[in-house]
């Protein structure tokens, strides 16, 4: 595979962009080799600068749920851009977007648009603090909520691969207000609440974690968090930046039937444009400025081009329930096919899956939190990643990320991925022996 153009671009990039990338995980540090520079994408495929084609199993980290260059989204973007890309004033599109989100996400009564998932989570905890008058928050080891200071403590995703889950630059004052518990451990949460009575403003959780690989909540875990929050006057925040509109039209909360006070959204709501949102109970959301005193603002918030793209995709997801059936079936086929290939070889590596999120963990332990996720053989994952890439399958370049399938994958693509997985296993296991 010739990747000369990517090699040259990376050399140029490293001179002018820290690490050569605009987001750390893209640098391939966890898997070796060097990143591919992508020139275009269509449907299920990415094309790099050298013209190589890859089946995309990340889909821009989630947003491209219906595949790349999806025609209704492109048309909506072009129409909106022709009217000028930004006004910095209220628009009809924002109202339609808010109405659509409220109609789809069960616990959201009011919503505020921002520009990224990070902004959404930062704003949500500020709001929870303003609402409760308390300072501390609980987050879970290996969960990632963007790069706000309060969240870069025991963080997953790229932070887990760069060896900096607790980022330098976060002040001790900020860090002391973030309390950490293992994912899926209700007793640890109870212990923190007992240790800091009436001091905890919010519990923020990925209802299905995707930033330590795909890790599912144990039965009763989310309801347990809900009950603890109700008992102790704590705001429950579901970070549905990944799971929102992916696991169901109403996200993980619809799928599990557990409803938070606040929800953070991103990725899919922008259809590939930079968007985030936070929303929830009216009583809490009305504390946001200018109806309330909790300040939050944004020059480009509710940007018309981003709203148009998001509306095009959300309308499709709301109106066409066959899409979710297709996503479930894709996830099932990949899971069964790939698991079958592991079993045929007597390999007991763990696979986790829900809907169209899944991944293979190179550990024999059941993976239910960050400690078990970290038991993976990361070198083996790196070899697997490279072996899949050589076979034209583009995975997230880290063990601590979920796969995100798109509905654009054909039966042929699914079989290609399963065959690539089988061949990659043979290659890396032979190398190991
Ligand atoms: C669960 C979760 N929350 C928040 C974020 C932050 O979103 P963004 O990268 O758009 O700032 C991400 C992804 O990065 C995420 O996966
Ligand atoms: N896990 C992150 C978001 O989903 C990966 C994207 C990034 O950090 O660039």
UniProtKB/TrEMBL annotation:
Pathway: Porphyrin-containing compound metabolism; protoporphyrin-IX biosynthesis; 5-aminolevulinate from L-glutamyl-tRNA(Glu): step 2/2. The keyword Cytoplasm applies. The modification N6-(pyridoxal phosphate)lysine is found at residue 267. One of its GO terms (molecular function) is pyridoxal phosphate binding. SUPFAM superfamilies: PLP-dependent transferases. Pfam families: Aminotran_3. Its cofactor is pyridoxal 5'-phosphate. The keyword ATP-binding does not apply. It is an enzyme of class 5 (isomerase). Its EC number is 5.4.3.8. Its main location: cytoplasm. Keywords: Cytoplasm, Isomerase, Porphyrin biosynthesis, Pyridoxal phosphate. It is found in: Cytoplasm. One of its GO terms (cellular component) is cytoplasm. It catalyses: (S)-4-amino-5-oxopentanoate = 5-aminolevulinate. GO terms for biological process: protoporphyrinogen IX biosynthetic process. Belongs to the class-III pyridoxal-phosphate-dependent aminotransferase family. HemL subfamily. Homodimer. This is Glutamate-1-semialdehyde 2,1-aminomutase. The gene is hemL.
């Amino acid at each position: 595979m010739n990747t000369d153009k990517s090699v040259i671009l990376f050399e140029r990039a490293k001179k002018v962009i820290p690490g050569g990338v605009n987001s750390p995980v893209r640098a391939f540090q966890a898997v070796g080799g060097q990143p591919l520079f992508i020139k275009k994408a269509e449907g299920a495929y990415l094309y790099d600068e050298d013209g190589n084609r890859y089946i995309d199993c990340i889909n821009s980290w989630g947003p491209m749920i219906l595949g790349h260059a999806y025609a209704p989204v492109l048309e909506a973007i072009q129409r909106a851009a022709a009217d000028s890309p930004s006004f910095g004033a209220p628009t009809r599109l924002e109202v339609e977007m808010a109405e659509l989100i409220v109609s789809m996400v069960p616990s959201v009564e009011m919503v505020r648009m921002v520009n990224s998932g990070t902004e959404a989570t930062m704003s949500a905890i500020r709001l929870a603090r303003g609402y409760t008058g308390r300072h501390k928050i609980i987050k879970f080891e290996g969960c990632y909520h963007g790069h706000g200071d309060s969240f870069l403590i025991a963080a997953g995703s790229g932070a887990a691969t760069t060896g900096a889950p607790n980022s330098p630059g976060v002040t001790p004052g900020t860090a002391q207000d973030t309390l950490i518990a293992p994912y899926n451990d209700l007793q640890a949460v109870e212990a923190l609440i007992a240790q800091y009575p009436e001091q905890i403003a919010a519990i923020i959780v990925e209802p299905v974690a995707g930033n330590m690989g795909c890790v599912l909540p144990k039965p009763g875990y989310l309801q347990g968090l809900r009950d603890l929050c109700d008992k102790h006057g704590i705001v429950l925040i579901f970070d549905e930046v990944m799971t929102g509109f992916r696991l169901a039209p109403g996200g993980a909360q619809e799928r599990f039937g557990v409803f938070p006070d606040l929800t953070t959204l991103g990725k899919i709501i922008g259809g590939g444009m930079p968007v985030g949102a936070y929303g929830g109970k009216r009583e809490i959301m009305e504390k946001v400025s200018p109806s309330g005193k909790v300040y939050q603002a944004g020059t480009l918030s509710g940007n018309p081009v981003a709203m148009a793209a998001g509306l095009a995709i959300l309308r499709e997801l709301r109106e066409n329930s066959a899409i979710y059936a297709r996503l479930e079936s894709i996830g099932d086929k990949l899971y069964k096919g790939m698991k079958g290939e592991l079993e045929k070889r007597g390999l007991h590596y763990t696979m986790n899956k829900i809907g169209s999120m899944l991944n293979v963990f190179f550990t024999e332990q059941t993976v239910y939190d960050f400690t078990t996720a970290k038991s993976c053989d990361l070198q083996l994952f790196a070899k697997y990643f490279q072996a899949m890439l050589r076979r034209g399958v583009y995975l997230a370049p880290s063990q601590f990320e979920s796969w995100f399938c798109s509905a654009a994958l054909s039966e042929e693509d699914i079989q290609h991925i399963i065959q690539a997985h089988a061949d990659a296993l043979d290659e890396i296991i032979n190398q190991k022996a």
